[in-house]
Amino acid sequence: MSIPTSITNFDDCPDEDPRNWPLSKKLYIICFTLLSVMNSGVSSSLPSNAVPYIYEDFKIDDQSQSSLPTSVFLLGYVVGPLIWSPLSETIGRRPVLVYTFIVFFLFTIACALAPNWPTLLFFRFVCGCMGASPQTVIGGVYADIFEARARGRVMAFYGAAASFGPILGPILSGFASQHGWRWSFWADLIFAGVAMGGLIFLPETFGPVLLKRRAAKLSKLSGTKVTASLSTIDTDLSAIFLRPLYMLVFEPIILATSIYVAIVYALVFFFFQAYPIIFPETYNFNIQQTSLTLIPLGIGACSTGIVALSWDLKYHSAIFKRKSWAFPYSPETHHLPISCISSILIVISLFWLAWTATPSIHWIVPTLSGLFFGFGYQIIFTSMMTYVTDAYKTYSASAIASSVILRSILGAALPVAAKPMYASLGVGWATSLVGFVSLLCVPIPFVLLWKGSWLREKSTFCQMWSKDEFASQNSSSDGVQVQQQREEC
């Protein structure tokens, strides 16, 4: 028996396979990755209700710049994914997550101590670049450690953290800033410190990197050259860093899901600018009261966890009992039916807000429209990201990065348009305009449900993953392993 010259899988060492790790280890990873995602989301929208206090402190009169602290952060979300997600598919998930979050932590301190407006905007941009890392890489981490069924459930929590974070930001700043706008960043820093403390001890999860380390260990022990297959690791730097953009342009699944997620994501940040116009002007609310009107969005988003889990349990129970209605849905598509319903709820919520926010109607009525929007937004976000992760697996970090890039561009641009839109069109028609845009996106989950399998068959990256998986399985059936390797496991 001889030591193989190349290893391509974990069959000789199953305990080192991230999918076979103990539940406690996986729960640790879930806990602190979700905290990092939520903290990134909170930071993205944090200045929304702090801007009036920042303006007063820095003696700024130009109201057109009020959305810049949020917009420049989201522009960082555009730049970051081009680097972090493909890099995580090359050098591994851990170094990207840990080092970027440390820089994010340090520049959050810098924001709290910023001496002037331009410096604050620069620090916010750096925070956005670094905060993009957990937003894009963590979907890949979950693809590393979970099979499809468990991954779908964990991605629901990922979606909740990613989308609920931006809703918490304005609420936090609305109350903290009355004691000084810098307290908004100090409060966020406490949250970031907890997440960073856990990320430092995060294990590496990316299979090809772990196999490469194992090959190096076997080479040292045996004195012979053992290599790890690099079939899923690109060494072409241009391919690595352009991959998210390539997927966004040439992968129809990525383009469609990214457009829809981008629009609903941008609408959340649009509301952070629109609510301070709608409720103070219509109902004479102050900053603190206006921030509380966002709570129904959070409640609607939180309620999706129960719905998504119930649907998931019902689907898998039907598969187990071999009920006919469940078999047309593949593991990738079984989350899409509830997103079809949610797409309609988003449209309803926007027109609801548009035409009930009037002085003659009690403020609770337009506020409750947030329940429908929060629920619909969360389901769309989670189901689309889960679908992409399940479809692209090894390349899921780049696939999610494509979505982050597009949604960050819209998230940065749409809030800037809020004040001019409401000034020229009024509350009813300005809100209706974005309602009509969301209406155009309603067919997307229906089309993916109908033609998703065909699109995956035509996808270059889906086929590349399938070939790598097939080659790995064949290699494991033909390889002969030695006792020395088994002892190392």
Automatic annotation (TrEMBL):
Keywords: Membrane, Transmembrane, Transmembrane helix. It is found in: Membrane. It is a multi-pass membrane protein. PROSITE patterns: MFS. Pfam families: MFS_1. Residues 29-453 form the Major facilitator superfamily (MFS) profile domain. The chain crosses the membrane at residues 27-46, 66-84, 96-115, 121-143, 155-177, 189-211, 245-272, 292-313, 334-355, 361-382, 394-417, 429-450. InterPro entries: MFS, MFS_dom, MFS_trans_sf. SUPFAM superfamilies: MFS general substrate transporter. Gene3D superfamilies: MFS general substrate transporter like domains (1.20.1250.20). CDD domains: MFS_Tpo1_MDR_like. This is Major facilitator superfamily domain-containing protein. It comes from Aspergillus pseudoustus.
